[in-house]
């Protein structure tokens, strides 16, 4: 069996059959996003619970067709093994957060990541659009947000304690039309784009554009870490952000909308509550990092992302909130992948491929699901993002899709090396090889801060 993520069941048959891309489809009752795929001498048949299930069956057929099927110009007729696959996801939320605020990811690479998520049967792209270091969402009502907040004069290079800088400006933003295009492209691949505008902390880019918003002034931040300058909690600032979020809602149809709420030193919880209430009044579900549990009563529809371990996520469940598990010690994919001295900018705790594959979300029978997070302070290009994400993201996909139960890492690693890495090669993904970085993937002399 060469499929990844591992399906609910795979029953091999005898022989192979020619496949030209055509198959029969019918709708049947079953789990959401589920399907049954039958390959026989009579042809290929898919029985799917819904459109998403049919799409996932297509991804399985693509895998069965061999690595060449992942190229921009796939082969014509291929040979498929006779088999039957029964499959459906374990979790409804199978997400990836990409931080495009610290380092801007060009639109074509963002679209490429939608394809990579879809190929792994992941279904949520959480976009961290704003932070101290950049504002990436075009605001037509407040254009200085992207015109000023979208650019910084320099960037810290390597760990902030070293004092090193890149010595070049950085920036960019997505127009609303860009983001509508992204949303439509993702929807066609059954991926939901969840936007996030972070308040009241991580807001220096907005404050640089409109100084009256902040407790103190200053430009777009060129450093990493936690900035003590937060948004003012007066009503005029809250009104400003109500308008910003209304623009966001006009672009993103996602039911869930992120408001951040994290690492706000001295931040006012009333700000978070009022924005959460505004989103709920607009028929959306607020989505906040686990610090939002400390700001007082929130709409019960609020979704909590548990990143500082999982205990706070369990507490949120007890309070009646839906939860997405994303604990930093397990699924922060910007963290270093080994203790090898050639790992580029080694930060955070060591998080190996095996560590990700053996992750088991706490409260698995109660949570919405889980997501892997890619913070980009030290991922300043699509090549660096690929290196951090893959193949660990392939392991994470198996965690959130495949059935619960013991996982055999040795079997997974064999399947990955023999079958899935060639697919990533065909897609042009510059992943980290299993035995360590290639020479051009290292960054000699650039300091990190491993924990």
From TrEMBL:
<dbReference type="InterPro" id="IPR017853">
    <property type="entry name" value="GH"/>
</dbReference>
<keyword id="KW-0378">Hydrolase</keyword>
<dbReference type="GO" id="GO:0004563">
    <property type="term" value="F:beta-N-acetylhexosaminidase activity"/>
</dbReference>
<dbReference type="Pfam" id="PF00728">
    <property type="entry name" value="Glyco_hydro_20"/>
</dbReference>
<dbReference type="Pfam" id="PF02838">
    <property type="entry name" value="Glyco_hydro_20b"/>
</dbReference>
<feature type="domain" description="Glycoside hydrolase family 20 catalytic">
    <location>
        <begin position="91"/>
        <end position="265"/>
    </location>
</feature>
<keyword id="KW-0326">Glycosidase</keyword>
<dbReference type="InterPro" id="IPR015883">
    <property type="entry name" value="Glyco_hydro_20_cat"/>
</dbReference>
<dbReference type="InterPro" id="IPR029018">
    <property type="entry name" value="Hex-like_dom2"/>
</dbReference>
<comment type="similarity">
    <text>Belongs to the glycosyl hydrolase 20 family.</text>
</comment>
<feature type="domain" description="Glycoside hydrolase family 20 catalytic">
    <location>
        <begin position="270"/>
        <end position="403"/>
    </location>
</feature>
<dbReference type="InterPro" id="IPR015882">
    <property type="entry name" value="HEX_bac_N"/>
</dbReference>
<dbReference type="InterPro" id="IPR025705">
    <property type="entry name" value="Beta_hexosaminidase_sua/sub"/>
</dbReference>
<protein>
    <recommendedName>
        <fullName>beta-N-acetylhexosaminidase</fullName>
        <ecNumber>3.2.1.52</ecNumber>
    </recommendedName>
</protein>
<feature type="domain" description="Beta-hexosaminidase bacterial type N-terminal">
    <location>
        <begin position="26"/>
        <end position="78"/>
    </location>
</feature>
């Amino acid at each position: 069996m060469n499929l990844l993520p591992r399906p609910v069941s795979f029953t091999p048959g005898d022989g192979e059959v020619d496949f030209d891309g055509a198959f029969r489809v019918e709708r049947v009752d079953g789990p959401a996003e589920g399907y049954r795929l039958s390959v026989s001498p009579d042809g290929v048949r898919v029985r799917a619970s819904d459109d998403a299930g049919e799409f996932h069956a297509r991804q399985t057929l693509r895998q069965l067709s061999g690595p060449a099927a992942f190229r921009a110009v796939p082969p014509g007729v291929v040979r498929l093994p006779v088999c039957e696959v029964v499959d459906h996801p374990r979790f409804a939320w199978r997400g990836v957060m990409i931080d495009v605020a610290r380092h801007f990811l060009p639109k074509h690479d963002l679209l490429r990541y939608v394809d990579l998520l879809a190929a792994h049967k992941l279904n949520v792209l959480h976009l961290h659009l704003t932070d101290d270091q950049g504002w990436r969402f075009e605001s037509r009502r407040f254009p200085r947000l992207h015109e000023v907040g979208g650019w910084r004069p320099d960037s810290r290079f390597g760990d902030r304690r070293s004092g090193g800088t890149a010595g070049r400006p950085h920036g960019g933003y997505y127009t609303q039309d860009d983001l509508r295009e992204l949303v439509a492209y993702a929807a066609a691949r059954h991926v939901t784009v969840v936007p996030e505008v972070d308040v009241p902390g991580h807001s220096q880019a907005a404050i640089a554009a409109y100084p009256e918003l902040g407790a103190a002034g200053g430009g777009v931040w060129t450093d990493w870490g936690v900035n003590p300058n937060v948004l003012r909690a007066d009503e005029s600032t809250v009104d400003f952000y109500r308008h910003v979020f209304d623009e966001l809602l006009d672009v993103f149809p996602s039911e869930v909308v992120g408001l951040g709420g994290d690492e706000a030193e001295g931040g006012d919880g009333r700000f978070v509550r009022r924005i959460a209430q505004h989103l709920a009044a607009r028929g959306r579900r607020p989505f906040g990092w686990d610090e939002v549990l400390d700001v007082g009563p929130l709409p019960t529809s609020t979704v909590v992302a548990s990143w500082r371990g999982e205990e706070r996520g369990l507490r949120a469940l007890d309070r009646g909130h839906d939860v997405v598990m994303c604990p930093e010690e397990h699924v922060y994919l910007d963290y270093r992948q080994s203790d090898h001295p050639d790992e580029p900018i080694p930060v955070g705790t060591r998080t190996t491929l095996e560590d990700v594959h053996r992750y088991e979300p706490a409260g698995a029978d109660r949570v919405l699901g889980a997501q892997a997070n890619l913070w980009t302070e030290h991922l300043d290009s699509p090549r660096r993002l690929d290196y951090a994400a893959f193949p660990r993201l392939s392991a994470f996909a198996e965690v959130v899709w495949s059935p619960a139960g013991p996982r055999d890492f040795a079997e997974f690693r064999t399947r990955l090396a023999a079958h899935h890495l060639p697919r990533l090669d065909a897609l042009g993904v510059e992943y980290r090889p299993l035995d360590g970085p290639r020479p051009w993937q290292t960054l000699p002399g650039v300091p990190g801060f491993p924990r």
